[in-house]
Amino acid sequence: MFTRRTALTALSAAILAPNSTLAATPKVLEWADLIPKGVPYAAVIGQGDFNDATGNWDIIFDENATKLNEDLNGKFVKLPGFIVPLEFGSKGVSEFLLVPYVGACIHTPPPPANQLVFVSTPTPWPSESLWDPVWIYGTLRTQLKATDLGQTGYAIVAETMEIYQW
Predict the structure, then answer these.
(1) Is the dihedral of CA 148, 149, 151, 153 positive or negative?
(2) What are 94-105's pLDDT values in tens digits?
């Protein structure tokens, strides 16, 4: 029999339960998941031209580069990647691009927007760990944003970060 006392006990237990039992399990993503279904990866990689003045290869992306997987908007996710710092201080990096491979945006032309994630974190990531691959946990948002290093297609406020273990 369901009584008022049973209901209050159940409600109290739910309120007092540890957060870990109530926390959502993140959807583990791979970089290919950021490309919408039906858009082949080869269609995302842009053509380009060699820039004689700068000595760089300037990539020219088509509209597929900014197509985002809207099914992921608002999802709690876990995504691996590498850090390209944007804002850092004495305690570490607080804003960065999460990229799929080492050197993206620094030594090579940037990946397309749907392969770049803008990350901000309330707890700075230590500077001595910048070259380590990381896992980022947070709610993913589809959001085109221009940065000095490239256009991003996604944004996350990192709730948790950790070293990626192979």
Answers:
(1) negative
(2) 999 999 988 787
